[in-house]
Specification:
2 copies of one chain form a homodimer. Chain A has 192 residues and is of the alpha/beta class. Chain A contains 6 helices and 11 strands. In chain A, the strands form 2 sheets. Chain A has an 8-stranded mixed β-sheet. The radius of gyration of chain A is 16 Å and the shape is globular.
């Protein structure tokens, strides 16, 4: 898939909701266009073809479907971080915090120590990158496990927010298939 | 995949946790064995090959990955019902209730009216079936949309609970790839 195809899909099927929020409910995070996600998977496979990857890490819920489709192109398992509701966390998980700007709260994400090891070379896959809180939380889980962060594959980056910039400046490879530069007056523009 | 393979996988990688709960965290609902899920997908494709299916419906979070892999064998999109935290539900969603026996609460699940239509022929996919509350909630969403329920494809059914029996008795086709008849003294037994 060229980045052009994804841009066209966003322009055709995306909607701008209240509060200037991009809604891609019809193919990413409520209904999932599985055929299209296979094109996404092929593109990540191309971008990360020179890397050795042992595991794909994502976060529930909407990252899981994309991660599973993408994982087929690397022949590795998916691990998804869980949003934890439990206050007392047992010692057998890694924990980090994620801030949700949509829901205006902070929550813990956890991953079992059983499924992230220091030998792992981890590719993070997620649908969105905006302020980078979820991505940062996933990076912290990998770091806590002593594993290697190969990079992050993001479907849509809101490049007018600073998450991508901050995380790239720390030396993490972030590949976003569509980078939105602005969304004003109902018009979506991309960085080519 | 024969049902035998899944049984062997459960015996090899499944664990019985506190409260006699079967944990399949290592390949179903925390880490996902994507290659194995492709075998699951092939088996559902075989079981439902004579049905016309336009959409796969599942529920977040752990159903999503499996549903996406399975959907590739039917070439249809996945829709996942969301666990709703919002009290005021807008009029543009179908709502039903699900009881969680693990978390001892009742929550709403919703699906946007945009993604379920009366013309749809829906296959439900989920990882577990026990008391059948989630499956029942999904059936209610499809019914509310006036769509057709083709059936349900379940990876693991706890057949010693009565959810599957109740739902089959209402005329819904339920295909479970592994049916556990008992789990006592740390020993898992299957219905063949």
């Amino acid at each position: 898939m060229s980045m052009k195809l994804l841009q066209e899909k966003i322009l055709k099927d995306g909607k701008i909701g209240e509060g200037n929020i991009l809604k891609v409910d019809s193919f990413v995070n409520h209904q999932i266009d599985v055929k299209f996600m296979n094109e996404v998977g092929k593109e990540f496979a191309r971008l990360f073809k020179d890397e050795e990857i042992t595991k794909i890490l994502t976060i529930e819920a909407s990252g899981i479907g994309i991660a599973c489709i993408v994982a087929q192109y690397f022949d590795v398992p998916v691990v998804f971080a869980k949003k934890s509701k439990t206050i007392n966390i047992a010692g057998d998980v890694y924990v980090s915090k994620v801030e949700s700007y949509t829901h205006k709260n902070v929550y813990d994400i956890i991953v079992s120590k059983e499924f992230l090891h220091k030998e792992d070379k981890v590719l993070i896959i997620d649908d969105f990158l905006a302020k980078g809180s979820a991505l940062n939380g996933l990076i912290e889980l990998i770091t806590a496990a002593g594993a290697t962060i190969v990079g992050a594959g993001i479907v849509i980056e809101k490049a007018y927010q600073n998450g991508g910039e901050l995380i790239r400046s720390r030396g993490v490879r972030v590949e976003s298939l569509a980078r939105i530069s602005s969304m004003s007056d109902g018009k979506i523009e991309f960085i080519d």
